[in-house]
Design brief:
Helix 1 crosses helix 2. It is built from 2 helices and no strands. It has a domain of 34 residues. The radius of gyration is 13 Å and the shape is elongated. The mean pLDDT is 90. Helices cover 52% and strands 0% of the residues. It is an all-alpha fold and 52 residues long. The longest helix is centred in the last third of the chain and has 17 residues.
């Protein structure tokens, strides 16, 4: 990973259940995302909520 080279800290977020959640469907409809981008969006939201 190159994140440490750029001074970024990495944290683990469990990706399980992102594609089968209500948040996933809402993100697809609200932001008009494909399912992979919506899953990445949910994972990013979870990490922000968990580590801030």
């Amino acid at each position: 990973m190159k994140a440490p080279l750029y001074g970024l800290n990495t944290k683990f977020v469990e990706p399980m259940g992102t594609a089968s959640s209500i948040e996933h469907d809402e993100a697809i409809k609200r932001f008009r995302l494909d399912r992979y981008t919506a899953s990445a969006y949910i994972i990013a939201l979870r990490s922000i909520q968990k580590y801030l």
